[in-house]
């Protein structure tokens, strides 16, 4: 199947994308992809410049007759969100992605595809190799660790980049050009757990598992009304505690990434002997209610209870687990406010992202986004207050800035002209409720004229991620036309 993808048109682009899918590149563990990129760039006849954190810059002279045109920066990030289905055996640090064609779409079996932002990396490599494309002098910037904090972009220095016009290649909707984005930040609460030893005699151990949800990107998909597995786990445990007196909870977990909507969550529980049928009936009724409420968005939701052969020797204090469930149910998740300036655009949101037991500590991870810094601060304060009321110690990260739209951008005007010339219609110019590196780059490189474009990618940050092949061809053709105009 990989050969089929490498042979797609445009060949240079899909050849490099296919090669990249074989290179492990989890966020914060990008050593293998950095080494591969440096070798690939050198094999193409150029010299990569690597900074202290691993960002790579490479420069290509303008095509013949266009050497003196203003330089253009093409920017992408090398890391990917590593999500997989629970029944998929896969090691993101060592295994190549199992890609395949599904009609007009490229997918990966049971895992994220990494088209976010692998297709942007492949574009820059294809342009480095291309001999017949008219273009101005180019700079390619490959940043690390975009998905877990934008730390690569944060580490950039003003003298690393010469260009003052930039195309970010990290957008996911063909026909739309982004000119602004939300800023964001993470808030984590930690709670010291109280355990008590328990004699498993008289109990049946079981695993409560929430699955079948779509998940997705906590920015671009937050307004789609999708279920949150951590929230549903909280509802399920609360229902069970009401229906089955004496039930005990030994462990809880859910979600995996701060920028992904939680798709799966689970708990290890002890049921008093003879109460399994009551528990199953309670969960079946709850699942029916939730599916009805979320239909047709989440028809695949499953709330399952399966026997566990290894009975836990300790459980969380009964009063504390109820307190924790109150916090999970009280924490907001989803859209907090829509934009009053741009119709249909989410202004502010929060994502209940992860639930992790770290030894004797429970950590709840969340992320907040907003187009307005002051409103983002309000959202963070709301999450902090809710966690503190639950007895959690709270810490919020420094976050990252938003990118203020510039509708008078000369680069935007040129893109619109190029797109209209090829497609016969104008593209939409929008802001996006997701974090792009443009905000940080704009702060570091003053006066940078920026746009963000990309082909159609659906369900990024989830194992349903897929790249549309025809739209990728359109995206490439428009980019080539734009480069000619900018030369």
Question: Any overview of this molecule?
Answer:
The chain is an alpha+beta fold. It has two domains: 2-182 and 402-486, 3-Layer(aba) Sandwich (Aminopeptidase), CATH 3.40.630.10; 185-396, Alpha-Beta Plaits (2-Layer Sandwich). It has twelve helices and 23 strands. The chain has helices spanning 2-6, 11-20, 31-43, 115-129, 151-154, 229-243, 276-294, 318-330, 373-389, 410-423, 438-444, 469-486; strands at residues 49-50, 56-60, 72-77, 99-102, 105-108, 138-143, 165-168, 176-181, 183-192, 195-197, 203-211, 248-254, 265-272, 302-307, 314-316, 334-338, 346-358, 361-370, 393-396, 428-432, 449-452, 457-458, 466-468. It has a six-stranded mixed sheet with strand order 1-2-6-3-7-21, covered by helices on one side. The chain has a five-stranded antiparallel sheet with strand order 16-17-18-9-19, covered by helices on one side. The protein has a four-stranded antiparallel sheet with strand order 4-5-23-22. The longest helix is centred in the middle third of the chain and has 19 residues, at 276-294. The two termini are 37 Å apart.
């Amino acid at each position: 199947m990989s050969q089929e993808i490498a042979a797609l048109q445009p060949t240079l682009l899909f050849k490099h994308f296919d090669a990249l899918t074989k290179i492990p590149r989890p966020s914060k563990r990008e050593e293998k992809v950095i080494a591969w990129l440096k070798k690939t760039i050198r094999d193409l006849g150029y010299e990569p410049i690597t900074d202290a954190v691993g960002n790579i810059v490479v420069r290509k002279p303008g095509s013949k007759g266009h050497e003196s045109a203003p330089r253009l920066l093409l920017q992408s990030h090398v890391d990917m969100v590593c999500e997989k289905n629970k029944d998929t055996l896969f090691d993101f640090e060592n295994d190549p992605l199992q890609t395949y064609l599904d009609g007009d779409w490229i997918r990966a079996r049971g895992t994220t595809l990494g088209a976010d932002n692998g297709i942007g990396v492949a574009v820059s490599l294809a342009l480095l190799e291309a001999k017949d494309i008219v273009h101005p002098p180019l700079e390619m910037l490959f940043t690390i660790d975009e998905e877990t904090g934008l730390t690569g972009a944060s580490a950039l220095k003003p003298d690393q980049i010469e260009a003052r016009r930039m195309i970010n290649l990290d957008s996911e909707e063909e026909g739309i050009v982004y000119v602004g984005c939300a800023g964001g930040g993470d808030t984590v609460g930690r709670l010291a757990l109280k355990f008590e030893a328990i004699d498993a005699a008289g109990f049946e151990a079981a695993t409560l598992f929430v699955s079948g949800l779509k998940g997705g990107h906590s920015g671009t998909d937050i307004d789609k009304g999708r279920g949150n597995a951590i929230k549903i786990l909280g509802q399920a445990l609360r229902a069970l505690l009401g229906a089955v007196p004496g039930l005990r909870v030994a462990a809880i977990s859910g979600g995996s990434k701060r920028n992904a909507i939680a798709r799966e969550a689970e708990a290890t529980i002890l049921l008093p002997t003879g109460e399994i049928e009551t528990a199953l009936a309670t969960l079946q009724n709850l699942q029916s209610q939730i599916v009805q409420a979320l239909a047709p968005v989440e028809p695949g939701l499953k709330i399952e209870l399966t026997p566990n052969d290894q009975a836990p020797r300790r459980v969380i204090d009964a009063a504390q687990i109820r307190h924790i469930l109150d916090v999970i149910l009280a924490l907001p998740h989803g859209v907090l406010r829509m934009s009053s300036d741009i119709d249909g655009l989410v202004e502010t949101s929060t994502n209940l992202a992860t639930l992790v037991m770290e030894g004797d500590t429970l950590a709840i991870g969340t992320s907040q986004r907003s187009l307005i810094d002051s409103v983002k601060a309000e959202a963070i304060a709301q999450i902090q207050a809710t966690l503190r009321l639950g007895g959690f110690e709270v810490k919020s990260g420094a976050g990252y800035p938003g990118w203020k739209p510039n509708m008078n951008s000369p680069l935007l005007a040129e893109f619109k002209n190029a797109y209209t010339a090829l497609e016969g219609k104008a593209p939409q110019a929008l802001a996006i409720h997701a974090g792009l590196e443009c905000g940080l780059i704009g702060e570091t490189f003053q006066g940078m004229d920026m746009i963000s474009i990309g082909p159609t990618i659906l369900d990024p940050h989830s194992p349903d991620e897929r790249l549309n092949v025809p739209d990728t061809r359109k995206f490439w053709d428009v980019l080539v036309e734009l480069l000619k105009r900018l030369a």
